[in-house]
Amino acid sequence: MDKIRKGRKDSKCILCEKRTKPGKRRPLCGETNKNLRNFLSKNFLVLPNDDDVICDTCRRKYYREGQAQVNTPTVLTTDTNANDPDFMPPSAPKRAKLSSPLSISLPISSTIKGHAQCCLCKKRGPKLMVVPQEARFHTFLEKNIIIPAGSRCCPRHLCTEGFTKEANEDITSVYTVSDFNRSGLLELIDTIREHALKNKNARIDFDKSSSLNDTDFRNLTGLTITDFEDLCSHIPNSAIRDTRVRSMRTCIGIFLTKLRSGMSNKILATLFNIGKDSIRKAISSARDAVKQHFTPKYLGFDHVSRESVIQNHTRPLAQTLFGDITNTTAILVIDGTYIYIQKSGQFKFQRSTYSMHKFRNLIKPMMFVTTTGYIVSVIGPYLCNSKNNDAKILNSIFKNNLEKIKEWFDKDDVVVVDRGFRDSIDLLEEFGIQTKMPSFLKRNEKQLSVEDGNTTRLVTKVRWVVESVNGRIKQWRLLDKVLPNSLIPYAGEYTRFVSAICNKYRPPLNAGNETDDLLLGAKMLHMSKKKNELMERVSNENLHSRSGRWQKIDGNDSVEDFPKLSEEDIRDITLGVYQVKLAKSYTEEHLENDEYYEVMQQGHQLIRVRMASRHTSSKTHNLWITYDDCCIKAWYCTCKAGARIVGTCSHISSVIWFLSFYRHQSCKGNQAKQWKDYVHDANQPEVIDDSDSEPEE
């Protein structure tokens, strides 16, 4: 290092700060350089001292700049020149640019320090590198010089054998401060202004993930930033052509926003500040791209094997209730979901899509779901008249072998369905597929038997997942609203794409815990084989016709010996959370009307409760509960499902929840708003105004 500096005087140019040799620099002192000092002071805010120097290069630029201002030719336009069509006025000479020193430091990160100085050759330039760790370099005079980490040097000084791979990966270390001169700062301001003017019309930008936070992405598209990036990585650049107003990412973002919000193309055009036609083309391009490159990877009987469903997408509770000990049974839940559509002007199509069950026009996709909520396939949509009920749709799928469904299922596999698939049982049994379906009421009966009620509860304990899946895909509001007739050709593609998104980016609805599910399944199977002894006691002792004194359930004064339970204990009795949720609504109505619950003591630790139905106000149900000091022993209700002992009906759960838990809470919580207070009731009695009546004499 000393050999490099030997024979050199540390004299830098005041303008470019380069070291200069004695024969290539000029002093700035003296009367002859007064104009030069004034020029530097005026243009570069530099105040030279007596010992400052300027290099010949900068001095020649100064003189050329002065000569260009003095000797600018004046073009005289004569009549001859004006009439000459080939006359070209002489061009003005180019002015040499002078650069001021980098005297302004701003806290702006950068990967390359502009015009820094090499620690070896002392040259300046924009391509200097940062030494991330101690390394060996060589110069023209000496090799293997040890340079400390953090120094800057020219790339040509790198010694390959002394610079490790890890150091090479860190070579683009970011600076926290950038140095500017006057002209560079003006260029930076102009660049920022130009960028701001270019993007002044942009309102929602999907090209830059930093423009929207994770919550905004979730609200607009239903996906997080990471999920959106992953979705875009599935789409090749050739699938969607970039245009002047939209990119591939923007097309995907517009398409997801359309599905998530259900907004019209006009509103989307306002949000994204592009034309309505561009919105329509963007949605069309994105729809075709995801149909080809994304949906087939995460939806359809071809995308997942039967063995994968058994191992990864089957809840242990379902295997315990309906499978075998070898866990080799595939269990799927099948149901149709509804997509409401506009009333069509095509009368035949209008009749074919009118549902006598929902009393409106709709189309019906058929959902095939595992017991954890994973969507195996979505087939359809289908019409919704009497010739297209659930059973006929499923029969058509198997007869036509859509998506090779017959090869996917194996013998003794199980499908869980509702009562609407009763006409498909025979066909499924021909293929060796078992069917689990809720029981029907027998002729001239108003209540399910104990055995039928227990079997039905086993089915509903597994079948609820398909209803939750239908609610999950309806979170994309385009599928939840009334679909315009112009979008009917794409209703199936929209449903399948949303289902593929749920499979890829949503967690399972309930994967279950293996130990807890095995215990719960064994408990439910054991209870399903028992009889309801309390029902037999009510029938044998005629407790339903025995008279007594009814007492309102108003607080701690009623049924004082009823045991105290936690909500977890109540869920162990109901074997689910749905009945507990309904219990809160029943209690809310009871608090509003004290006559809602009425209780009668019909024996030691045996109560009879009379309560109104939540569907029909004129209909009441009677229920009996036996208990001891610490637990509930038995229950029976006269409602349709009240005889079962695998869980309880909502009437029994509401009474247990109120007597054993709610009334003992010191803080009852805020009461919900009564929506009926905001709506007028024409059945209220007429208010008579006596102010205009004549006084009696």
Structure overview:
This is DDE Tnp4 domain-containing protein. Its cofactor is a divalent metal cation. GO terms for molecular function: metal ion binding. The chain is α+β, with helices and mostly antiparallel strands and 697 residues long. The protein contains 25 helices and 22 strands. Strands 11, 12, 13, 14, 15, 16 and 17 form a seven-stranded mixed sheet that branches. It has a five-stranded antiparallel sheet with strand order 18-19-20-21-22, with helices on both faces. The chain has a two-stranded antiparallel sheet with strand order 1-2. The model is unreliable at 1-8, 111-115, 137-143 and 158-174 (pLDDT under 50).
- Average of per-residue pLDDT values: 81
Discrete helix count: 25
What are the segments in which pLDDT stays under 50 over at least 5 consecutive residues?
1-8, 111-115, 137-143, 158-174
The class by helix and strand makeup works out as alpha+beta
Beta content: 5-15%
How big is the Rg? Answer: 41 Å
The helix content, as a percent range, equals: 25-40%
Largest sheet: 7 strands, mixed
* Global outline: elongated
Assembly of the depicted chains: single chain
Number of beta strands: 22
Distance from first to last alpha carbon: 127 Å
Pfam families: DDE_Tnp_4 (PF13359)
Cofactor: a divalent metal cation
Keywords: Metal-binding
Domain DDE Tnp4: 334-503
